[in-house]
Structures are given as structure tokens and as C-alpha cells.
């Protein structure tokens, strides 16, 4: 699936997801304890500091400005990742995507409105939504469908982890569910911090990420979901850092694999990962590259769990961090 990215400054900030809007970066934290509680706490050891998350406040303001209806009652989304965020915020949409991917159980009986690439405009129109919330990465193609049908739409970035965090903040504000958004982000950040511990004192590996099937494989840069997790764990994505490729997905090139000689090759395969692995191995052996690559010498060609890494998902991010840290640093 197509992914895109924006760069979000990661200055250390406390998150409270208040409604404050403006330029620069916001510093936000959860509800402040009462003075009496503070006095009591002074006599006991200080608790562990809350996890810290940064957001691009100017971008959050820009994204919120798309929504013409505050706290919209009737919401449709064409995205699994956005559906997951809405579920975590306690929002019940009137329409969700038709998909084979796992969806929140609470949405089992919600009207299905087609896929992100082929939405059912007639079905959506019947729902009379206040807004259709969709991924920013496919805005151009969706606008060609929604605008002529006069369907209200808004687009939020959900391809990388940083984008998912930003969009969680935005939706938390939109639906007046800042506390739930905070809880979700803190859970993700806690696991991210724990996963980083595995890499402390160890050399950062050079990583190549492949996505696709036996018929078609693509390189993934740091602006994809898996790519952003690799970056947060301190590893180097050779597609971004060595090849300097800006596109989120780039067609596989055997010469580039040999030239970058990654320490780790990660595979996100939809379909049979064993078949994809076998095909790649055969292709590399044909040009005599297999035995020369560090990843294969060290047994670091690793298929990843598609259920965790196949779709950009802030709900799956904690488990994905844990799995990925084991692959990179164990």
C-alpha cells in the first residue's frame, strides 16, 4: 500500500493534548495533580516520569482546520489505521472500510463502504456523513471521487509512526477525547523506550526493508511504518541513508542491494513470506551476490509478521517495536 510521510520534529515535550493551537511545537501533559497530592508525594520517592511525545503544532492546526464540523457526529473512514484510532478514542463511525485486515470488534456491524482505492460512493452518500476521514497519501485519487459527489472530506497523515502520533492528537482534539489520545500515545512511547534499551551500547545495523510479494518487491524508506520504527530504534535504513531515495516505496534493484550490503534485510510480505524469501534468494544466487551479503552471512534475512507490520497501525506499534528490537539487536 502506498505510504508517504511528513517530517515531524521530535523535540522532547510533554503531551496533554489540550486545545491550544498556534505556531511552533506544543508542550502538553496530562492533568496536573492537586496541591495536596503534590505535598503528599514530596514525602515519597518521585514516580517515573510520563512518556514524552512531540507533535508539530503548526501541522496539527492545519489538519484540524479541514474539519468544518466540530466534534462531528457522523464519521466515515476508508482506512483501517484511522478506524483503529477512532476506536481507541471511543468514536463510533457510521461507515468503515471493506477489508480483509483485522478491524476493531466494536465495528463488526458498522456499514462497510468499500476499500480506500474503490470507495462505494452511493453507500457513503446514503450515510450522509459530516466528514469522511482518509489517508493524506491518497488524497489526490480520493478527491477525484468525493468532490464531484459533494461528499465532505478531510485528510490526515497515517503512513509513518510519527504521522500516526500526530493524527492521534488531531483526532483526540476533534472529538474532545484528549485523555484517551494521551493514554494511547503513552502506551506506544513506553514500549518504544523499552525497545531502545536493547540497542544501547551496540553498533547501529544497516537495514534494508522489502515490501511486497514474490511477483513484485519494493524498497521501503524511513517514511513508511516499518521504516519509521527502524529509525526510532537507531538503525540505519540504507534506502534513505545510503541510496538517498525520497520515495516511500521504490522498485527493487538487485544492484542496490549488493552496493549497500545491509547487515539486516527485513521482509514485509503480503502472501506467503516463504515463497517471497525463496524467490529473492534465487535471484541473488543467480548473480552471485548471495554469499557476499552480510545479512545472509549472519542469518539476518528476517520475514516480519504481516499482521504487525503490513499496515501502518499505532495500535500495533508497541508489539511491533518489541519484535523489531529483537531482530535488530539480539
What descriptors fit this protein?
globular, Rossmann fold, 2 domains, alpha/beta, disordered N terminus, 330 residues, 6-stranded mixed sheet
What does this protein structure show overall?
By secondary structure, the chain is of the alpha/beta class. It contains 14 helices and 11 strands. It is about 40% helix and about 10% strand. The chain is globular. The protein has 2 domains: about 35-195, Rossmann fold; about 200-330, Rossmann fold. Helix 2 packs across helix 6 and helix 7 packs parallel to helix 14 (about 315-330).
SSE diagram, text form:
Blueprint: H1 35-42, H2 57-64, E1 75-77, H3 80-88, E2 95-96, E3 111-112, H4 121-126, E4 131-135, H5 139-146, E5 153-156, H6 161-174, H7 178-197, E6 206-212, E7 217-220, H8 225-232, E8 236-237, H9 238-241, E9 249-251, H10 254-260, E10 264-269, H11 273-286, H12 294-297, E11 301-303, H13 306-309, H14 317-329
Parallel strand pairs: 1-4, 2-3, 4-5, 6-8, 6-10, 10-11
Antiparallel strand pairs: 6-7, 7-9
Helix pairs in contact: 2-6, 6-7, 7-14
Question: Based on DSSP secondary structure assignment, what is the total number of beta strands?
Answer: 11
Question: CATH superfamily assignment of the largest domain?
Answer: Nitrogenase molybdenum iron protein domain
Mean residue pLDDT: 85
Determine and state the CATH class of the largest domain.
Answer: Alpha Beta
CATH topology type of the largest domain: Rossmann fold
Shape: globular
Q: What percent of residues adopt helix (DSSP H or I)? A: 25-40%
Q: What is Rg?
A: 21 Å
Amino acid at each position: 500500500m502506498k505510504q508517504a510521510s511528513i517530517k515531524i520534529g521530535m523535540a522532547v515535550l510533554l503531551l496533554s493534548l489540550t486545545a491550544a493551537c498556534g505556531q511552533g511545537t506544543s508542550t502538553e501533559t496530562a492533568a496536573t495533580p492537586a496541591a495536596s497530592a503534590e505535598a503528599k508525594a514530596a514525602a515519597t520517592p518521585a514516580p517515573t516520569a510520563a512518556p514524552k511525545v512531540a507533535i508539530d503544532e503548526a501541522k496539527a492546526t492545519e489538519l484540524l482546520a479541514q474539519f468544518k464540523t466540530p466534534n462531528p457526529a457522523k464519521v466515515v473512514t476508508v482506512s483501517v489505521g484511522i478506524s483503529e484510532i477512532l476506536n481507541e478514542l471511543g468514536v463510533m463511525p457510521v461507515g468503515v472500510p471493506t477489508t480483509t485486515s483485522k478491524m476493531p470488534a466494536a465495528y463488526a456491524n458498522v456499514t462497510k463502504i468499500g476499500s480506500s482505492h474503490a470507495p462505494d460512493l452511493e453507500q457513503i452518500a446514503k450515510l450522509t456523513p459530516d466528514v469522511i476521514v482518509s489517508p493524506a497519501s491518497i488524497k489526490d485519487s480520493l478527491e477525484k471521487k468525493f468532490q464531484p459527489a459533494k461528499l465532505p472530506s478531510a485528510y490526515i497523515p497515517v503512513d509513518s509512526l510519527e504521522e500516526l502520533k500526530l493524527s492521534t492528537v488531531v483526532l483526540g482534539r476533534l472529538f474532545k477525547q484528549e485523555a484517551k489520545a494521551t493514554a494511547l500515545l503513552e502506551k506506544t512511547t513506553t514500549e518504544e523506550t523499552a525497545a531502545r534499551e536493547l540497542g544501547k551500547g551496540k553498533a547501529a545495523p544497516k537495514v534494508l526493508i522489502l515490501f511486497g510479494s514474490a511477483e513484485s518487491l519494493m524498497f521501503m524508506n524511513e517514511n513508511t511504518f516499518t521504516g519509521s520504527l527502524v529509525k526510532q530504534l537507531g538503525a540505519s535504513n540504507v534506502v534513505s541513508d545510503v541510496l538517498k531515495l525520497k520515495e516511500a516505496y521504490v522498485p527493487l534493484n538487485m544492484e542496490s542491494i549488493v552496493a549497500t550490503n545491509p547487515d539486516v534485510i527485513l521482509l514485509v510480505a503480503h502472501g506467503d513470506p516463504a515463497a517471497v524469501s525463496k524467490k529473492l534468494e534465487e535471484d541473488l544466487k543467480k548473480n552471485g551476490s548471495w554469499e557476499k551479503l552480510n545479512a545472509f552471512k549472519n542469518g539476518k534475512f528476517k520475514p516480519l509478521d504481516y499482521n504487525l507490520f503490513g499496515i501502518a497501525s499505532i495500535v500495533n506499534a508497541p508489539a511491533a517495536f518489541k519484535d523489531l528490537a529483537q531482530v535488530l539487536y539480539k
